[in-house]
Design brief:
The chain has 350 residues and is of the alpha/beta class. The protein folds into two domains: 167 residues, Rossmann fold; 177 residues, Glutathione S-transferase Yfyf (Class Pi), Chain A, domain 2 (Up-down Bundle). It is built from twelve helices and 15 strands. The strands form three sheets. The chain has a six-stranded antiparallel beta sheet. A six-stranded mixed beta sheet has the order 8-12-13-3-14-15, sandwiched between helices. Strand 5 and strand 6 form a beta hairpin. Helix 5 crosses helix 6, helix 6 crosses helix 7 and helix 7 packs across helix 11. The two termini are 24 Å apart.
């Protein structure tokens, strides 16, 4: 997939309304807070109809209540347009002029964004790692995306029942549906890890070269118990907390180096490399699923990366039909260098 054009209005500090994006590696250079990350995030939003971080309100320029991001995409011989309308507390998505869900855009191929904050995938809370896995699986499978949405609705309903005092005759009904969807989600996650784990492990080995083995494990909040059994065992805790305390929404993706938890025992460099390995695996699985590489977005390529990791990223960018790389200084092997200052992009077509 390739992005042929980007249009935006009131997206953070960006002031350039229209940008045509060529093939190859385009590097955007600017000082901190110049708008480099905002450009990357706008492209990512257009390619996936999903925000890489933050809320819709945080994507709008200060003082504005509405905004817009649109992209023209080429997928093989097909052309598509994705338009994302932004307003405080609301996001609307149109694909080729038709209102759709964000998950419907995923079938086009999408984009992979690599950024300094990816280290939080390792050091951050379980919700970030779980979100990484769910987001990837939702883009690989519309069925998974719909199933996950249904599961979260059931959790909300169960929690509402648990907040009521006394017994509720509807709880067994929600329990059954919860276990049905939860077991399917758990099975699909485990199946995906059989593909994700070896790719991430190889990427870590290629970058780190330290002889350590990266492994990925799904740690279930229910332990080895079936979900219905786990619900029964935690009923008193559920009542006390008025919340569902076991299930896929409480599971974690555990990263280990030679069987030692990276979060607890890994160095900052090891954590950065492990996070990079996850993104490389994401890129590989999306390429495998769609038969074409996704758009590669590398934000702040020089931030906290040593020479080897920067070289690995740039080699990946060079193998990708279209990559957008940002930094305070241009890498030596970009096809072109653009500049951004104050949200305004200066494009050099030479």
């Amino acid at each position: 997939m390739r992005v042929r054009a980007l249009r935006q209005l009131h997206f953070r500090n960006l002031t350039t309304a229209d940008v045509r994006l060529p093939d190859g590696v385009t590097c955007v250079v600017g000082r901190n807070a110049a708008g480099k990350s905002n450009l990357v995030d706008a492209v990512y939003l257009g390619c996936t109809a999903s925000l890489p971080s933050g809320t819709v309100a945080q994507t709008l320029r200060f003082g504005e209540s509405e905004g817009f991001v649109g992209v023209a995409l080429q997928v093989g011989d097909e052309r598509h347009t994705v338009e994302v309308g932004l307003s405080v507390g609301r996001k609307s998505v149109r694909l080729d002029g038709q209102a759709v869900r964000s998950a419907d855009v995923a079938r086009l191929g999408g984009a992979v964004r690599i950024a300094p904050e990816d280290a939080d995938l390792v050091h951050g809370p379980p919700a970030l790692r779980r979100g990484f896995l769910d987001d990837l699986l939702a883009r690989l499978s519309l069925r998974y995306a719909l199933m996950l949405r249904g599961y979260h609705r059931v959790v909300e309903q169960r929690n509402a029942v648990l907040k009521r005092s006394g017994a509720d005759a509807t709880l067994p009904v929600w329990d059954a549906r919860f276990a049905e969807l939860g077991d399917e989600i758990d099975a699909l996650r485990r199946r995906a890890l059989t593909r994700l784990a070896p790719i991430a492990g190889q990427a870590y080995a290629d970058v780190a070269g330290d002889g350590k083995r990266l492994s990925l494990t799904l740690r279930r909040s229910a332990g080895g118990a079936a979900l219905l059994e786990a619900l029964a065992a935690t009923r008193d805790e559920e009542r006390a907390r008025a919340a569902t305390v076991v299930g896929p929404h409480r599971d974690d993706l555990e990263l280990a180096l030679d069987d030692h938890d990276v979060r607890a025992y890994g160095s900052r460099g090891e954590a950065r490399t492990a996070a990079l390995a996850l993104r490389v695996a994401e890129f590989a699985l999306l390429e495998e699923r769609h038969g074409t590489p996704p758009v590669l977005l590398i934000d702040d390529v020089s931030a906290e990366l040593d020479v080897d990791r920067r070289a690995y990223l740039m080699a990946l960018a060079r193998r990708t039909p279209q990559a957008l790389v940002t930094g305070t200084e241009p890498p030596p092997d970009a096809d072109r260098v653009w500049h951004v200052a104050g949200g305004r992009l200066e494009v050099d077509d030479a």
